[in-house]
């Protein structure tokens, strides 16, 4: 029983590490998207076509 508990704890630690990495990836993607949207938003309401 102790081995099973230790194995589960180790698996959970690995899962936590992987989830933290995924959160960081998602944060970077969101930041990149926001950096793209801010300048692009200026061009959504064009008042003059040349």
Name some characteristics of this structure.
50 residues; mainly alpha; 0% strand; rod-shaped
Envelope shape: rod-shaped
* Uncertain runs: none
Whole-angstrom Rg: 22 Å
**H and E string:** H
Instruction: Compute the number of strand runs.
Output: 0
Could you report the average pLDDT, rounded to the nearest whole number? 90
Helix- and strand-based class?
mainly alpha
What proportion of the residues form beta strands (DSSP E)?
under 5%
Counting H and I runs of at least 4 residues, what is the number of helices? 1
Characterization of the model:
With 50 residues, the protein is mainly α. The chain has one helix and no strands. The protein has one helix at 2-41. The radius of gyration is 22 Å and the shape is rod-shaped. The model has no long low-confidence stretch (mean pLDDT 90).
What is this structure's SSE topology?
Layout: H1 2-41
Provide a short characterization of the protein structure:
It is built from 1 helix and no strands. It has one helix at 2-41.
């Amino acid at each position: 029983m102790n081995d099973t508990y230790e194995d589960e704890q180790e698996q959970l630690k690995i899962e936590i590490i992987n989830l933290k990495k995924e959160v960081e990836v998602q944060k970077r993607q969101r930041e990149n998207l926001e950096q793209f949207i801010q300048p692009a938003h200026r061009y959504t309401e064009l008042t003059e076509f040349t």
